[in-house]
Design a protein that fits this description.
The chain is of the alpha/beta class. It is about 45% helix and about 20% strand. The strands form three sheets. A five-stranded mixed β-sheet has the order 2-1-3-10-4, with helices on both faces. It has a four-stranded mixed β-sheet with strand order 8-5-9-11. Helix 1 (about 5-20) crosses helix 6, helix 2 runs antiparallel to helix 11 and helix 7 (about 180-185) packs antiparallel against helix 12. It starts with a helix and ends with a helix. The structure holds beta-D-glucopyranuronic acid.
Length: about 325
């Protein structure tokens, strides 16, 4: 394992946090929370509500946490910047958009880097997750709970995807991260970075042929109503995290910091508990709406086609390459 450097950074950042915590203010703090997902319709939304509820109750009003659902506070990339600046105090972020600020998180975005969801959880709950958390703390973002987000698969309005060649020429939406763009390009798709909030309309008006996501997200924003085929490529299994602005956390007493960390732990567990049922229900809903779902029993052709994404990543981020080997070594 080669986490020594990142671990050392973590210790430095955390001890800094402890020194700052010595000067404690008891004034009540308003905490704004960013959530991209729809209220009451996605495991992330329930987890964010739980986090706010526990923080409010546990700090007895010293923090007033309020979640703004549905991305109303802005797109994810802007929300990450706002959190770092302290304009918002908490949010739930995905390793993809985080990669712009914390390059180490992009390792988790590499296609098929996790063998299955269990492997992803073992990675994120172990030294790999610690390494990501440490790198995020260096940028003023404190993760207080890591969750999964199932597996992402392609959906589109042209044809079922059974082999990489089926993606050739399709206009496929990606979130904003060069790795995502490279991944779709490696399959011959026409990658189109776009904010999550714009995808529904773009699918409906055929500006896009398709996109890729997990079942709860696909259905909660109604992409299933404007998509014909969903093909279980399961090319990415992305960790996500509930994160707090480090400076706001440092302003708290030791006891309130503990409340925030515990709220993050409980909210993340709730998310993990809810996910599988929610994903299964969303799949049923998509099928009921007429989406034709096909499995891809042997994904090796997709893995082979996406291999150049790894080469480019290793070339551009030589200091992060060992993290890929570390994940792959986790059983
Ligand atoms: C969802 C993620 C969210 C992403 C969104 C997207 O939970 O963080 O922003 O996909 O595709 O599954 O943009």
């Amino acid at each position: 394992m080669k986490y020594a450097l990142l671990r050392k950074m973590s210790v430095t950042a955390f001890s800094g946090a402890m020194v700052l915590a010595a000067s404690v203010s008891t004034a009540s703090a308003e905490w704004k929370g960013w959530n991209i997902h729809v209220a009451g319709a996605h495991p992330s939304s329930f987890a964010m509500d739980k986090f706010a509820e526990l923080v409010n109750a546990g700090t007895e009003g010293r923090i007033g946490a309020d979640v703004f659902h549905g991305g109303v506070l802005g797109n994810q990339s802007d929300a990450i910047d706002q959190l770092r600046l302290g304009a918002i105090q908490f949010g739930n972020f995905n390793v993809g958009p985080l990669g712009r600020v914390v390059p180490a998180t992009s390792v988790a975005l590499l296609p098929f880097v996790f063998r299955d969801v269990g492997h992803m959880f073992r990675s994120v709950d172990g030294p790999f997750g610690d390494a990501l958390s440490a790198a995020m703390v260096e940028e003023g973002i404190l993760p207080v709970g890591w969750v999964g987000s199932g597996a992402r698969s392609f959906y589109n309005n042209v044809r079922p995807i059974t082999e990489p060649a089926d993606l050739v020429g399709l206009k496929i939406r990606t979130p904003g991260n060069d790795l995502w763009v490279g991944m779709v390009q490696s399959l011959g798709g026409n990658a189109t970075p776009m904010d999550f909030s714009e995808v529904f309309q773009a699918l409906k008006t055929n500006v896009l042929d398709g996109g890729e996501n997990n079942f709860p997200s696909f259905v909660s924003v109604k992409h299933h109503e404007v998509s014909a085929f969903l093909s279980l490529t399961e090319h990415m299994m992305l960790p996500e995290c509930i994160c707090v602005n480090l400076a706001a956390y440092n302003d708290l007493s030791d006891a309130d910091q503990a409340v925030v960390r515990e709220a993050g732990r409980v909210a993340a567990n709730l998310h993990r508990e809810l996910w599988d049922n929610d994903a299964a229900a969303a799949r049923v809903e998509a099928e009921a709406a007429g989406v034709v779902i096909n499995t891809i029993p042997d994904k090796s052709a997709f893995q082979a086609a996406m291999a150049p994404v790894y080469d480019t990543f290793r070339e551009n981020n030589p200091e992060l390459a060992s993290l890929i080997d570390d994940i792959q070594a986790i059983q």
